[in-house]
Design brief:
By secondary structure, the protein is an alpha/beta fold. It has a single domain, classed as Glycerol-3-phosphate (1)-acyltransferase (3-Layer(aba) Sandwich), CATH 3.40.1130. About 50% of the residues lie in helices and about 15% in strands. The chain has a seven-stranded mixed beta sheet with strand order 1-7-6-2-5-3-4, sandwiched between helices. Helix 2 packs across helix 6 and helix 8 packs across helix 10.
Length: about 260
């Protein structure tokens, strides 16, 4: 029997189960409210595509911040976010590990105006399609066009959030990054900033139903690391080799940082 299963249920487990159900319902409802109630009148305000995109991202950031406050106040989780003030710079690529379903909520909720590479399935989901389309988030369809679009967004001054694993980290595993994120960074990023996300106990992993909540409250610790200058790598190596070396460096960095918990 695992240590987690042998733990007694703590932190008002039954209430947390009900609150988690409310949170999932609220998230889905929020996506529909943004799509059908918030965004249509915002489009009537005029402005070019970039301005409309900026308004949509601001609305999503505000809604995610409210959602985070709700989860904290009802006792589902706690969050300790350190260094968030260094996120959101033009041309900054934020690279984070992906232990749970909520990681993108925490980052977008703390980085106003950021773009994000999102799983392609979310673009087709009725609850998330509207916000993703309005905000101009980039679909991870694993095409060359996606890499070009992401690099162009960075060159134009967007902050871009990327989860290089492409999916949530399996239980009892360390992150394994695809090289596509570093290829994007080498071609477009002014600066790369790693963000290490820790959570205990692990929950909301890939394929895990929402109602299988942990026996104690989830605790998130999010730490912003030191900036990495892509020019330090491209000046020493040809582009493909620089991307591979950067990917190896990030693997070692995240493994080292996650081992400290």
């Amino acid at each position: 029997m695992s240590a987690e299963l042998s733990e007694p249920r703590q932190d008002a487990w039954l209430w947390r189960l009900c609150a988690t159900g409310m949170a999932f319902s609220l998230f889905g409802l929020g996506g529909l409210v943004l799509r059908f109630i918030v965004f249509p009148p915002m489009r009537l305000l005029g402005g070019d595509a970039a301005l409309r995109r900026c308004r949509s991202r601001a609305a999503i950031t505000w809604s995610f911040r409210c959602f985070i406050r709700f989860m904290v106040r009802v006792g589902i989780l706690t969050v300790d976010f350190r260094g968030a003030e260094r996120l959101g710079r033009p041309g900054q690529m934020i690279i984070a590990n992906h232990p749970s379903l909520l990681d993108v909520v925490f980052l977008i909720g703390h980085v106003a105006g950021a773009s994000c590479i999102v799983r392609h399935g979310l673009v087709e989901n009725v609850f998330t399609r509207g916000p993703i389309t309005a905000a101009g988030y980039i679909s991870n369809n694993e095409s060359t066009d996606m890499l070009d679009q992401a690099a162009a967004a960075l060159r134009e001054g967007d902050t871009l959030i990327v989860f290089p694993e492409g999916t949530r980290t399996p239980r009892d595993s360390l992150p394994r990054f695809h090289r596509g994120a570093c290829a994007i960074a080498m071609r477009g990023a002014r600066i790369i900033t790693p963000v290490v996300i820790r959570m205990s106990p692990r929950s909301l992993t890939k394929g895990e139903p929402w109602y299988r909540i942990p026996r104690r409250r989830m605790q998130y610790s999010i730490q912003v690391g030191e900036d990495i200058d892509p020019a330090d790598w491209t000046s020493r190596h040809p582009l493909p080799i620089a991307g591979r070396r950067m990917n190896d460096h990030l693997h070692a960095y995240f493994e080292r940082e996650l081992a400290r918990q």
